[in-house]
Amino acid sequence: MATKNAFYAQSGGVTAVINSSACGVIETARKHSSEIGTVFAGRNGIIGALTEDLIDTTQESDTAIAALRHTPSGAFGSCRYKLKSLEQNRREYERLIEVFKAHDIGYFFYNGGGDSADTCLKVSQLSEKIGVPIQAIHVPKTVDNDLPITDNCPGFGSVAKYIAVSTREASFDVRSMAKTSTKVFVLEVMGRHAGWIAAAGGLASDANTKIPIVILFPEVVFDRDRFLAKVDSLVKEFGYCSVVVSEGVKSPDGKFLADQGLKDAFGHAQLGGVAPVVADIVREGLGLKYHWGVADYLQRAARHIASKTDVEQAYAMGKAAVELALAGKNSVMPTIVRKSSQPYAWEVGAAALADVANVEKMMPKDFISDDGFEITKGCREYLTPLIQGEDYPPYKDGLPDYVTLKNVAVEKKLPEFKL
Amino acid sequence: MATKNAFYAQSGGVTAVINSSACGVIETARKHSSEIGTVFAGRNGIIGALTEDLIDTTQESDTAIAALRHTPSGAFGSCRYKLKSLEQNRREYERLIEVFKAHDIGYFFYNGGGDSADTCLKVSQLSEKIGVPIQAIHVPKTVDNDLPITDNCPGFGSVAKYIAVSTREASFDVRSMAKTSTKVFVLEVMGRHAGWIAAAGGLASDANTKIPIVILFPEVVFDRDRFLAKVDSLVKEFGYCSVVVSEGVKSPDGKFLADQGLKDAFGHAQLGGVAPVVADIVREGLGLKYHWGVADYLQRAARHIASKTDVEQAYAMGKAAVELALAGKNSVMPTIVRKSSQPYAWEVGAAALADVANVEKMMPKDFISDDGFEITKGCREYLTPLIQGEDYPPYKDGLPDYVTLKNVAVEKKLPEFKL
């Protein structure tokens, strides 16, 4: 087997553990130096490949690469840049292959969600046609947990843990204050299309620690009266309640609930979050004192409270991607296969990219309670293993000691390419 | 020395470590059972004393009390209920003393901020006059870090750590995405009067991990043009920046910046947070893509990432309060005395409540940089020790195993009292 170089890129919104996958790819490649030469990384994701802005990861020490495992965000930079279809923009795909050829790259590891799986598939198809064979392996990553076939997506478990922990903590706070102050706390979480992350808020309450939580899923059209009745009944029973609201919740008119037509003093439209909107509905409808929070990037960057399961799976996906490549596979994605929920057992599988690309996995309907405000036992059974275990980063001076790589650029060999 | 019972209550906004002080009070009292009989706690703070709604802490096991050390929020309930002055409402003070007398309470431990220090002082003064001697000891607590004499306040260090860690993590996220997506992240933090918590955001950047951060302090009047120029220059240099904004930042007209006169589609006034306002100023002024978050209760409830220093100091304050009482002291508050910043060394001191009540400690002017957007070396030297060390709670099923006490009510002996 001739030595070929590899290319690794991070795609889309970053997570607390995508660098753990990068660590898995690079460490595994380093162990197979007779088959894989240099691992290049794309600076700012696929844009780095298109513009031939490659990073030479051999310039990074083993220690620095190992530290990726405990460092959140995308160490090489990521991007939101969706390649159009082959028909619409063959030029970009050809450029990718041209860059790979120029740098003797035979392995393409693309770490992302649905869009990048699609890009991966197309690069593999086109490279075969052109006669510049490139083994394209997709490494799954998305906090949205919406990739098919794999039981779950690396990145999701850590957001889920962050939201579950934060909801429990904030709920304890509200419970303490409810007698004379705040009775309802509203937490806005990510998830524009699917309620996976919102569902994780439901884990804050369990048999030992009962917390009244109302979840607003994007799968359930917001019904103001039913919502207020639910909050009212919980506050009457428990003295307080927490509301976990997905940013993607929609009004009966099909618009995002967050889009309330707010105008500033000058009449300019303002788009706030959905949390203040829901809080205001509570104030207006029930006259209860509220607080609200918006976790935003904090939730997906929170490596300090990452799920150990998630960190391990993210690493395993990176490692497996390289192993699949070495085994001669192409157009595949390693997957997480659940063998058992209690006790949790999983193993690494593989899926054909043709089955992954352009398929969005939604949350099963039976994960949401009949009244639309809670998670079911089945949902809890699915989610619980994914937040298991803590994997604390090292600390220095009271702060997590995250690594910033040198990211040394590789000399360019090709003419400039305009995006 | 005759055995007397003790009363403990939590006051005002709760913190990640106020229960650690409760733990210090109760564990220390249990060790001195010949002098201190039952420790009663006020259900929902001082309201519990006024309404004779006392909790019998002897019903809680040693294990449950020990678990308070790692449990955020107020385990007995807190309240926002400020007693008026003695002249305006002598009735309430007399009722407190009446309840204390009925339950043979000779020690009053009040765990809170400036207001509760004042209440503590007055109870002590009045009880002496009436001839029902009660030793009133104030246990310092406030995330606002605004109590005088003590070097810092338990509760603050953990919020500071949470904000520093979160700002670092979110900044890593933005740095990854800045090429094609978000360039400015705005995080709103607590602090209506003083910028202590906002200042902690500045710790996210240090010699090893340089992060461009703009801090908006309540001490500095917001100047739109200068702010935009600062953000613009940082984004040009680093490609991105983070903004940490205190909820208390004010416009030149003296109003809160958060109060932007937002109106909904029906013309109703909406009060959002300050983060979306600042984010919108960035969008309008520089056309940069932004994200914003509001940590709200998450920041002060985040026991999962509490500062070990803070947990230890909170416990030490509770313990010292009991020891001061046993030494016959009255109208005092244990304090944290800094002996050295590098290496950090502190010891327990004591302050007369007459010197504590109604004095608010502001952030020193020389803690803010000349341009008003950063912390100085002096500020960093003060803050850094306070976030040192991690003190992780135990976990169960992926979530922190926080205790919920039984909170068994004590039989009432007095007629009802209307608040």
3D structure, described in words:
The mean pLDDT of chain A is 95. The first copy, chain A, has helices spanning 18-31, 46-50, 62-67, 90-102, 114-130, 156-177, 196-201, 224-238, 274-286, 297-301, 308-326, 353-356, 377-383, and strands spanning 4-10, 36-42, 54-56, 105-112, 135-140, 184-189, 213-216, 241-246, 262-263, 269-270, 290-294, 332-340, 345-352, 395-396, 399-400. Chain A is α/β, with parallel strands linked by helices and 419 residues long. In chain A, helix 1 (18-31) links the parallel strand 1 and strand 2. At the A-B interface, helix 6, strand 9, helix 9, strand 11 and helix 10 of A face helix 6, strand 9, helix 9, strand 11 and helix 10 of B.
Briefly say what this structure is:
Chain A is of the alpha/beta class and 419 residues long. The first copy, chain A, contains 13 helices and 15 strands.
